[in-house]
Amino acid sequence: MLNDPAFPTLAAAAGSPWASAFGRDLMEAFARRPRRIAPKYFYDAQGSRLFERICELPEYYPTRVERAILGAHAGEMAALIGPDAEIVEFGAGACDKVRLLLSLLERPACYRPVDICASALEAACAQLRQAYPTLRLEPLVADCFGDFEAPPAHPQARRRVGFFPGSTLGNFNPDEALAFLRRACALLRGGGLLLGVDLVKDPALLHAAYNDSAGVTAQFNLNLLARANRELGTAFDLSRFFHHAYYNAPLQRVEMHLVSACRQRLAVGGLACEMDEGETLHTENSYKYTIDGLRALATRAGFAPGPVWTDPDRLFSVHWLPAPGLERQ
Ligand code: AVJ
Predict the structure, then answer these.
(1) In terms of C-beta density within 10 A (0-12 exposed, 13-18 middle, 19 or more buried), how is residue 201 classed?
(2) Which of 97, 96, 126, 125 is CA-nearest to residue 112?
(3) Which atom of ligand 1 is least distant from the CA of 220?
(4) Would you say the CB of residue 171 lies under 6 angstroms from ligand 1?
(5) Does ligand 1 have an atom closer than 6 angstroms to the CB of 167?
(6) DSSP state of 163
(7) Ligand 1 centre distance from Cα of residue 325 (Å)
């Protein structure tokens, strides 16, 4: 589409902010219908901070419950991970959940947090260095869900273990989740994946978690347009959009949208377009799983289904998924 000669105005000059991945994807989002953009663009410095605030909201149970599960079972998890493991965390953000494991791991060979947000990763690593001065820390700024090439395993590592908490897997549709897990399984051969996923539950609880009373999730959603105004020089009027999040039960996912509050003209790079009142930009899917559904998916991806931990209310789950293969001696 973007290279289509019929749409010459969509081609951004090299060096223009519109030539960035965000610029190109935003233009494409508005050139197509239904209008949608990948949730990874929420996470500039401001969006990463807003997400950290979401994690502290009373209604947003996933972070709190997952931490409780990790805290209660970290000993068992560390034993399954085993000695001399290289830990690769996908979408590490604040790198705080891994702390629950680090102190219990036997001689971790190194910790490699991968995140798309350089500022969030730098701040997190500075704190980790203070808390774990002897830990070998090798952060990587990358989109670990795109064309991510993992560096070769650390020479002192006996096995490589993935850590993927926070139900970030839920941002993928089922096909993408399967493809990601297949790649992860190949990367982690001989080791395994410790994966946190949010569970299907009463839609009222899901609704509250994505429509918090303090309005932080709304700000997080709207930050996508604020980011475009900052980075791309667009003139989105944030008061003409509102946050909408609901549970789509047949598809087992929470959807987040930015809804146009009125009919409005928009200039998005070289593209002039309109949004009708009520028309939406779909900004995120957050899929929810059943324990059996997740284990079936992981098995199709090549993992062996291992132990699963959950909380008493069965809100959230953490899975140990061994990746068959030879480990190094
Ligand atoms: C980071 C993708 C797991 O889906 O719950 C939080 C992001 N969006 N509130 C989620 C999010 C709105 C979060 N994940």
Answers:
(1) middle
(2) 125
(3) 12
(4) yes
(5) yes
(6) E
(7) 32
Q: What is the pLDDT of residue 146?
A: 73
Dmax of the chain from CA atoms? 64
The answer to whether the CB of 221 is under 6 A from ligand 1 is no
Q: Please name the residue whose Cα sits nearest to atom 4 of ligand 1.
A: 286
**3-state SS, residue 160:** strand
Mean confidence (pLDDT) of the chain: 93
User: Residue 224 — pLDDT band, cuts 50, 70, 90?
Assistant: very high
Q: What single DSSP character describes residue 113?
A: E
Over the Cα atoms of the chain, what is R_g? Answer: 21
Strands 264-268 and 271-275, how do they pair?
antiparallel
Dist. CA 82 → ligand 1 center (Å): 30
Q: Of 158-162, 169-173, 269-273, which gets the smallest average pLDDT?
A: 269-273
CB atoms within 10 A of CB 327: 15
Q: Token pair of 276, please?
A: 């009708």
Q: Are strands 110-115 and 140-141 parallel, antiparallel or unpaired?
A: parallel
**Ligand 1 center–CA 45 separation, angstroms:** 16
d(CA 219, CA 223): 6
At 12 the pLDDT is: 73
Residues 283/270, Cβ–Cβ less than 8 Å: no
- φ/ψ of 171, rounded to 5, equals -70, -20
- Beta pairing partners, 162: 88, 193
CB of 210 within 6 A of ligand 1: the answer is yes
Q: Convert the pLDDT of each residue in 252-294 to its tens digit.
A: 999 999 999 999 999 999 899 999 999 999 999 999 999 999 9
Which tokens go with 179? Answer: 């493809």
Q: Which residues contact 275 (CB under 8 A, 6 or more apart)?
A: 260, 263, 264, 266, 281
| Among 134, 133, 95, residue whose Cα is nearest residue 112 | 95
> 60-74, pLDDT tens digit by residue?
999 999 999 999 999
- Cα–ligand 1 centroid distance for 168 (angstroms): 7
